[in-house]
Fold these 4 entries.
Entry 1:
Amino acid sequence: MNLSLCTISFRHHLHSIKEIAEWAQMNHFQGIELWGIHAKHLKENPQYNSDWLASYNLYTSMISDYLPLHLSHSELLHATMELSELGHRWGTNKLRTFAGQRASASLNNQERKLMVEKLKMICQELERENQFLLLETHPNTLTDTVPSTLQLLEEVDHPALKINFDVLHIWESGAEPIDALVKLKPFIKHFHFKNISSRNKLDVFSPHNVYAAAGSREGMTPLFKGILNYEEFVKSAVSLTEVEASLEWFGGNVKEVLENDAKRIMHVTKEVNRLYVS
């Protein structure tokens, strides 16, 4: 397993990218998932790029952004190419976005068709750049359920379209994560790992709350202390496929939580590897 930390975890902290890279190198991470707005601001500092990150024995696993699918084709194309350029600079071919901002059940056929057209256009552009568009499984988007996600993949029907499998949000949709993993396996390029204390606390991950400096963090738990059994999931996932994952932590005590979760993931992964060797 290749494990990354997300720079979004440090969104309310006064840490430079250099400090984050140094800490990641010392604490069991192989990669960094770069938040789109961080990547855009770092354009002002050309010394920061994939070669610089490699000097810490790290790589950029993914750039996580929010392409404006609600805007015109020309505006969307401009944003796509800007994101593509950032991907090249940081040496990653994985560019993440959300499949719109509305629940799949709320779109009519024409609205869905327009979304499919826009996603196909993005994929055609990114294919020329040898890059992939990863749609995150997320509430209130076209990938808010496994059936809608599979339908969307079939509708767009393009090899550049892949999935960022957010385990918690898959579970939130009512699906069993390991079953969903099996169904979506051919399309999965990345995983997001996070956990929660109980289902009635899931609103803590609503965008208006989770991005707010003063937002509630009640219910967020370290990976192996929440309602989802991540030991079982990690063991199943690494036995089924190659896993590139990011710890997506939004709560406090960032370094302590990330360090402990990374150590535990390493331990679980080693247990699986020992079973295969024996």
Note: The domain at 2-276 is CATH 3.20.20.150 (TIM Barrel).
Entry 2:
Amino acid sequence: MSQPITRLDQNARRSRAVIHNGTVYLAGHTADDRAQDVAGQTRQVLAKIDEMLAAAGTDKSKALNVTIWLSTMKDFQAMNEVYDAWIFPGHAPARCCGAVELAAPDIRVEIMVTAAL
């Protein structure tokens, strides 16, 4: 029997979250206020992730994997200071982080999360 697939906040190109078989897959999230430094953008992104996980019926304590893209690795330490404070104690997910060319020059960080329900 096929498991249902639920898509949240969907448009023609993407869904902000897809729920399937007890797992929530979030799209990459970026900050709304891109005038902020990387710490400010990271705080905004993680708040959006918290909201999307809640809408899907879960939370960051059930995060399985986090992928972080930075526009430059020079922002790694500042991003990590915010990220480390966000992690649910004792429930750190698997994680990778790298520098890539992001969709717009004022995007400093994009984060994607996979979580269990």
Note: The longest strand covers residues 63-70.
Entry 3:
Amino acid sequence: MTAAASEVHHPFFARFWSVFVAHEAKAVKALRRENLAGLSGRVLEVGAGTGANFAYYPESVEQVVAVEPEPRLAAIARDAASGAAIPVAVTAETVEAFSDGEQFDAVVCSLVLCSVHDQDAVLRRLHSLLRPGGELRYLEHVASAGGRGRFQRLVDATFWPRMLGNCHTHRDTERAIIGAGFEVAEARREWTLPVWAPLPVSELALGRARKAA
């Protein structure tokens, strides 16, 4: 993400992501649902994309404010919001610029922290937007070890971020979450494709982190 919504334009990625999410694997859908389970109150979703999460929010959520600065994706997310079972408001602001004057009960990040330009700054901003005791729920591409990790570093340095909306596959996202002041309460790794699949984004981290009360 960048400082102004007008600077966030990834037309190729927006088209690709719309098709990809429409055919998303059942394993990823299940992880999305698990990531949102038990949420309540006001929720900020960062990088909402096409609104793929909206159908999985529990009825205990009072409102979702969904930030999506890519205009093509934001338009699709607004259509998804209109059919959601809970109130969803989609804004085209970046999270760096976003503020509605109140803190949130939870923040949700799904496959977005890999693509922000300054991950540390974004996570610190999310920490400030949470009420004390609030939760960060995350489902994120993360750095793998061994040969896949070397492959991730290679694609990150060449074509992958340019083609896929600034996605960087070899980020130590959980270290950054802790560095921003969160306390990780639960975390695990999941493979959504076979280990041998030649893709750098097969391994996901699913976790819950808290802002100290």
Note: Residues 11-22 form the longest helix (12 residues).
Entry 4:
Amino acid sequence: MAALSIQERKRLRQIGHALNPVVMIGGQGLTEGVIEETNRALNDHELIKVKIAGEDREARGQVIDALIEATGAQAVQKIGKIVLLYKKAAKQNQHLSNLVRHAHLSS
């Protein structure tokens, strides 16, 4: 997967700013259920926020890296316990994609 350009990252961060986390990773860490839910959310929305619980910054980083590897997504931005993930959908859902909705709102 090609790396995102600076312009693409900036646009995705702007869209992501208004989003709320749709996946929460708690004390149990990265489970199959969390990976499935993240994949489903990425398929539907393409751009999502994930919140990772825990105070250990290094442990959160490892969870984020494992989630990115498991889903094939790209991290657009990491701030504290929140990571903004992007994965282009094979077939964009016009009703659910945050990218499509943002395009309609800004035009």
Note: The chain has one domain: 4-103.
